[in-house]
Amino acid sequence: xxxxxxxxxxxxxxxxxxxxxxxxxxxxxxxxxxxxxxxxxxxxxxxxxxxxxxxxxxxxxxxxxxxxxxxxxxxxxxxxxxxxxxxxxxxxxxxxxxxxxxxxxxxxxxxxxxxxxxxxxxxxxxxxxxxxxxxxxxxxxxxxxxxxxxxxxxxxxxxxxxxxxxxxxxxxxxxxxxxxxxxxxxxxxxxxxxxxxxxxxxxxxxxxxxxxxxxxxxxxxxxxxxxxxxxxxxxxxxxxxxxxxxxxxxxxxxxxxxxxxxxxxxxxxxxxxxxxxxxxxxxxxxxxxxxxxxxxxxxxxxxxxxxxxxxxxxxxxxxxxxxxxxxxxxxxxxxxxxxxxxxxxxxxxxxxxxxxxxxxxxxxxxxxxxxxxxxxxxxxxxxxxxxxxxxxxxxxxxxxxxxxxxxxxxxxxxxxxxxxxxxxxxxxxxxxxxxxxxxxxxxxxxxxxxxxxxxxxxxxxxxxxxxxxxxxxxxxxxxxxxxxxxxxxxxxxxxxxxxxxxxxxxxx
Length: 508
What we know:
By secondary structure, this protein is mostly helical. It has helices at about 5-30, 35-55, 70-90, 95-110, 130-140, 145-165, 180-185, 190-200, 230-235, 240-250, 260-270, 270-275, 275-290, 295-300, 305-325, 335-340, 345-355, 355-360, 370-380, 390-415, 420-445, 450, 460-465, 475-480, 485-490, and strands at about 115-120, 120-125, 490. A hairpin with a 2-residue loop joins β1 (about 115-120) and β2. Mean pLDDT is about 90; it is low at about 1-10. Keywords: Membrane, Transmembrane, Transmembrane helix.
């Protein structure tokens, strides 16, 4: 569908750019990490679908859009702020970035597929590396540092995410006031800081500022449990959060049959960036499609383009599942645990209420008017009861649902009459502000307040206090610092079955 207005033209360029951003690592992956008999036909089909989407002008929808120029400026400023908080301004990055730099350096410096020797054994990189491939290639081809290339790549993704999420509220409102949606979205979180401060014993007080409050529920339940704030997700796990923000932005603007195939294709790309997020995104995608007659009708008559997108999306997700399942460590979800936890529901009900306070208070009954919101709410209610000893599944499957509900809240507030808008904004700042402000202080101070706590204090654990103070880590150093128990999550002892036959002896 060719755009017929500036508003449609803006949707077209943002949609195509987002699709290219999500798919470009997949093309690199199919060419270097996959057997040609599998990667070549899938790569050719993916290129054909990308060309078709660009040629036809993928207009996302005719939902309200803020003025394009100011929207880009707001998105750029917010992206620069987030990139600076990540650590690019100071050179000091939180715990997870030891891993990020180790994998980025491995991909830049070693032949693909990546093979290393770890503790005298071969190690084959089997991980969701969508965020790392393009910066590694850019650094190799241009001679720029991997730090500069990563900052540019993440910054571009953030601009795209914020432009998509800064458009299209659920109600008609001032197009200019929609510009408030992105800053407001980044301020959203659960009431983690309030509970973290209240649950601490009088002899171990903490404050709202300078502390990472996301793990407050660990004091109440027998397994690690966390829902990340919007800012926390972007600062700790940008390799998974940025593409998820983009996919949710595309999903929120999915209104037309022409956008169905490209949106499905974009969603499937999460299999390379964040397979757990893909699980959560698929639930929302299906609810969104089933809830709109025009999209349901398109499923009955898919046509060549939509049918091709569905086939490629399914094939790519299946290929990634086959790759990542090779020597997959256990410890994910624990469905059987739900029966026991339902007999002592207090802590779990409290967790859900604290984390979802803003959607429940802002949207209220309107939360149940939207099938996608209902699916997001059900996802977030179910996950805490089935969390396992490894926190990643719950933390990452929850991302699309959290982003979707918080984005809807941000748009609802931005579209309110000014007095109500001010009141709703104040409510967000009162409930979630301490959590977000604590996260900002935590990153600005490099975890200094956690390091000042006694060594035996749970809030003085390494993941609060150990920071990446350089960008030259190797895979060996990553495991030496963070623990060798993480090795099976990233490196296998034999090549995955989808790897090229030539991937034999590990490089030293």
